[in-house]
Amino acid sequence: MVPESSAVTAAMSVAERYFSPAFLNHSVRSYVWGTMYAEAHGIDRDDELFCVAALLHDIALAPSFDSHTVPFEEAGGEVARVFGLAAGWPAGRTDRVAEIIVLHMRDDVSADMDPESHLLQVATSWDVVGRWQDEFPPQDRAATLERYPRLGFGKEFLAHFEDQAARKPGSAAAASVDRHLAARIAAHPLDAGP
What we know:
Layout: H1 6-18, H2 21-41, H3 47-56, H4 72-86, H5 91-103, H6 115-129, H7 138-147, H8 153-167, H9 172-178, H10 181-186
């Protein structure tokens, strides 16, 4: 389902190398959920840009790229910026991929203002804590999970966020933990079955 481009192929290779199987599937599901939502709501987007952002949005949770001082979404945005430059993207496009990754952890962004950031927010908040549940019909959930199973993603994600919160108490990850992230992950409808 991912778009065919050299940048997407390279981003997938990076994700496959540095993510656990659970995080790799989460990254691909984030693209799939965002695409489903966009098509259901007629949201026009730069599909290559959105796909690269979805595949790399958690790259700074991988041990090789984890910053001990910078929030993971900001560090991840910088890794994606470097990735984009290496892929030959112009500076404006590399700025956009970094921005999308940073904004996915900020307050809601409207689709009118920034379609790619909005889609990544919707997709990741659905995949992590079950927000936007009504947007994803049971048959679509089942088909997506069959192809890209969760593999214990919730527990692994929570461990990463609790670690981020302990080291970076002013971060968005810490705020998520404080807002009962563990309980929200435990109640996720995707883990209860399609």
